[in-house]
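S.,

As promised, the 6-O-phosphono-beta-D-glucopyranose run. Input:
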Amino acid sequence: MGSNSHLQTLSNPTTLVIFGASGNLAQIKLFPALYELLAYGHLPERLSIVAIFRQSSAALDTVMSQVEVTMLRQHRECDPAILARLKSLIRPIIMDSTNQEDYYRLRDMLDGIDHEFSVAHQRIFYLAIPPSIFKPVIACLGAAELNKEYDGVARRIFIEKPFGSDLASARDLIDSIKTHFEEHQIYRIDHYLAKETVQNILTFRFQNPLIRSIWNRDGIDYIHIRALEKIDIEGRSDFYESLGALRDLLQSHLLQLMALIMMDAPTAMESHAIHEQKNALLGAIKLPTEPIDEFANRGQYQGYREEVNNPESQVETYAIVKLGVDLPEWHGVPVVLETGKALDHKDTSIEVVFRDRHNIDSGRNTLTIHVQPDEGIELQLTAKSPGFGYETRPVSMNFSYNTAFEGKNPEAYERVLFDAIAGDQTLFSTSAEVLACWEILEPIIQTWRNHNSIPESYTKGSEGPVGGIGIRKSVTT
Ligand code: BG6
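Predicted complex:
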């Protein structure tokens, strides 16, 4: 995690191989992130990018124009000279990623790059492709021996969530990847972990004695972690129909946030120690013993079925679950995880509500970590209103990234690619974490599947389904 190690390792000659180079993820996230890393001088001097396209090499021009459009739409500067430099690093190859023969051509190309520069490059295979072809692509890489590390020169594979769609399929995926790549070579991306505010959680918790002393069941009443989105599924029908809100976002991003918020202090701020503590916390998360309907709810926004062209769809676009942690320091502290699309506002945050042990009843103290938008930390306290009386009202103490720090925060995918090149696994999910997250939610997934439970309908632009609001309120009163 230390920045010095990054500075050393980023000098490593690197070939980044992007599968799915003309896909949505590559265009919207990966190439813009590479642009920024290049613009700020964060890429190694010897970097080649191999972009895999299914058809026509003209695809590269299309992708580059799309990158420019994306960046301008996001109000980011896009200097044509930097874009041209980025393009000059990219070598397109047309191949069918499920055809073994094509991998020998890919291997020749990668060997050619090593010869051209007279140095063996570490190779990073980034699978920006649908999860349904992870297994065949990984098997083809293995059969072409593109997984083999020689003389300490790394071979790494990067995959995007979802890692399976339930416990059994996640186990199967993990096992099949492990036949070709070892755990130190596998980087499972959870882009939430690469967000600046999320990286700050451990520092904030463990390097501030005041916070550390109240961060347990004696100090905290309940925790609410949410990723509420205003956007709907934005045309990603196939992707969303195969998953739904619980498996798309709650199973991965929100459980990871919960682990960071409640895990014990690691013995050191480095990958192994952090993963060890996260894993211990995830293993202790328990569902309440009540019937599932009382602590979990799901909803579907009106109009979703027409959008995905499936009048029978029972896929949820909203999910909420109340959990507990079976550890002495967290006993009796409920944690609510909530996510949904097409809601009335965007808010990804972690709200920690402190206990009122003396029952003063003058208002709660709440600490909110704003992940996005308006990244920062806010502490709500009670103050006396100015004047002759003694009325009180809640006031906020704020720390905002925009005003506290100068310069630009790297976007999550910039961090992901930076760490990919540096070989730092701290911000990636381990196989044990992925399995633990599926295990926690498996009873809910099975119940919703087996009982054909119908998600509660909610209006687009609302607070979500009534049942969900009820679960949220159950911890606040
Ligand atoms: C992705 C989900 O992992 O995260 C999307 O698949 C979701 O459904 C997205 O919209 C949210 O990411 P962010 O960074 O905008 O909060």
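The domain at 193-410+431-476 is CATH 3.30.360.10 (Dihydrodipicolinate Reductase; domain 2). The CA atoms of residues 73 and 386 lie 45 Å apart.

- D.
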